[in-house]
Amino acid sequence: MTNTVLEKEIATLPHAAISEVVDFIRLIKLKFPEDNAVSEKKSLFGVWKNEPFYMSPDFDDPLEDFSEYM
Q1: CA–CA distances in Å: residue 54 to residues 26, 48, 62
Q2: Where residue 47 falls among pLDDT bands split at 50, 70, 90?
Q3: Over the Cα atoms of the chain, what is R_g?
């Protein structure tokens, strides 16, 4: 079925029925999501590769704030 056939059929409907058609189309879109939405999600693995960063030499040392708990 082509878009022109749908357009002709919708043009013959009363206004109240057109709003129901729009609601039905939205329901169908929720039922059958586009494949593009799934493929847009990309892996973040390696995204910071070759990016310079600095880690303090005392990064792994215990924090003074937790000394009373240790």
Answers
A1: 49, 13, 19
A2: confident
A3: 28
